[in-house]
Design goal:
By secondary structure, the chain is of the alpha+beta class. It is about 40% helix and about 20% strand. It contains 16 helices and 16 strands. An 8-stranded mixed sheet has the order 1-5-6-11-10-9-7-8, with helices on both faces. A 5-stranded mixed sheet has the order 13-12-14-15-16, with helices on both faces. It has a 3-stranded antiparallel sheet with strand order 2-4-3.
């Protein structure tokens, strides 16, 4: 047993389970790569103020959950709690929006950090794949991103997820609703912290998960009743595009999500098999975020999908992913000369794109064949002094148990043919 263990609220990804996470990342990013989204990678930490301005000072993320640190030079940094603010900062810094081809379409994958009470589906270190379309106000973009996420989940075999959809209005109509909501909330029996939130961002109160708070919100003003004509038309177009694409969704007038930068379209992917931590991903439009962090006006939309929660959703549905074999051929040498010769064959197989492994450490035949079985290889190559003297190697089919001698010079070509 090691002296050290992973920090509380974190997890290690180890084989074979780590293969699921890789497959999920690949499945989520595949539709994005086919739709004009380029890969972007940002640092694991940023200036604290980036998140305070972008995510919102009233959010739990900024007030309670960020891991912050002070550098030797006195700078205040934070481990990134989410991806959008970092990606937009990087796009602005690189002047991607000035290249003349808007929207700037980017996707990313990485680790994020929030100080939360650890529980199943909620970790202090977690993994997401995200996508952002920066610089264009178009309901088609909103619909595109929702459709691509839906496509990714269905390609994995998930079926029991739901898409919740809402509109949060814009800078024209939301202030009127904000005032009406504040007036309503001030008369409720709420704790001091929630009352402070009413003055900073009252929409966040609607996202409160406590039953006693939700009970009091039954008669709260509805944002849909305050949407301006432009926001109503925009939202109806998003809904129509999703319906035309055959993507089912549910209207959820209380959906606000936990970040302050959202405007107009907001959506969430939920899976009822995950208990209280039912959200597996979500996103929305954030037309004012660029200006919040010192950039020009760049209306944008994006989402982030949780890799770990998606894996939990797959397990909840009993979905077994069709994962590629980590090893297709396993070489077992008997003797020093065979070690050199078969290692050469393994190297040739790898260069040809065939997953091959080797019995390291000079083990005997029995122990090496046990390792070959554990590797999951379809074929095993065995060679000893007599085989080499005859210019052959023994090729064993691990499924059928059949074994035959093949010319050493033709071993790689024969395996390539059999493996297709």
């Amino acid at each position: 047993m090691s002296t050290f263990q992973a920090p509380k609220g974190t997890y290690d990804l180890t084989p074979p389970d780590s293969a699921k996470f890789l497959a999920v990342r690949e499945a989520i990013s595949a539709p994005l790569r086919d739709s004009g989204y380029g890969y972007i990678e940002t640092p694991g930490f940023e200036n604290v103020e980036l998140f305070a301005r972008g995510v919102g000072e009233s959010t739990d993320i900024v007030t309670k959950e960020m891991y912050t640190l002070t550098t030797k030079g006195g700078s205040q940094l934070a481990l990134r709690p989410e991806g959008t603010a970092s990606v937009l900062r990087a796009a602005l810094q690189a002047n991607l929006h000035k290249a003349g081809n808007l929207p700037v379409k980017l996707w990313y994958s990485g680790s994020y950090y929030r100080y939360e009470r650890p529980q199943k589906g909620r970790y202090r270190h977690f993994s997401q794949v995200g996508a952002e379309a920066i610089g264009t106000e178009d309901p088609v973009l909103d619909a595109e991103l929702i459709i691509l996420a839906d496509q990714a989940y269905r390609s994995l075999g998930l079926r029991q997820f739901r898409i919740l959809l809402n509109s949060l209005g814009d800078k024209e109509c939301r202030p009127v609703y904000r005032e009406a909501l504040q007036t309503f909330l001030r008369d409720l029996d709420l704790d001091e912290e929630t009352r402070r939130r009413i003055e900073i961002n009252p929409l966040r109160v609607l996202d409160d998960k406590r039953a006693d708070v939700q009970k009091q919100l039954t008669d709260a003003p509805k944002l849909r009743d305050y949407l301006c004509d432009a926001c109503k038309a925009y939202h109806e177009e998003v809904r129509a595009l999703l319906t035309a694409a055959g993507v089912a969704f549910e209207d959820d007038e209380k959906l606000v999500r936990g970040l302050d930068y959202y405007t107009r379209t907001t959506f969430e992917f939920v899976h009822d098999g995950l208990g209280s931590q039912s959200a597996v991903g979500g996103g929305g439009r954030y037309d004012g975020l660029s200006e919040m962090i010192g950039g020009p006006e760049l209306p944008s939309v994006g989402w982030a999908l949780g890799v770990d929660r998606t894996v939990l959703a797959l397990e909840a549905e009993g979905v077994e992913l069709d994962l590629p074999a980590t090893t297709s051929v396993y070489a077992v040498p008997l003797g020093e000369e065979a070690r050199r010769v078969l290692f050469g064959v393994v190297t040739e197989l790898r260069r040809a794109g065939i997953a091959a492994d080797f019995a390291f450490g000079g083990r005997g035949l029995k122990g090496a064949m046990k390792s070959a079985n554990r590797s999951g290889a379809r074929y095993t190559l065995v060679a000893g002094e007599r085989d080499l003297a005859e210019g052959v190697v023994q090729l064993k089919d691990m499924e059928s148990g059949e074994q035959s001698a093949v010319p050493l010079a033709e071993a790689a070509a024969e395996l390539a043919k059999r493996l297709g």
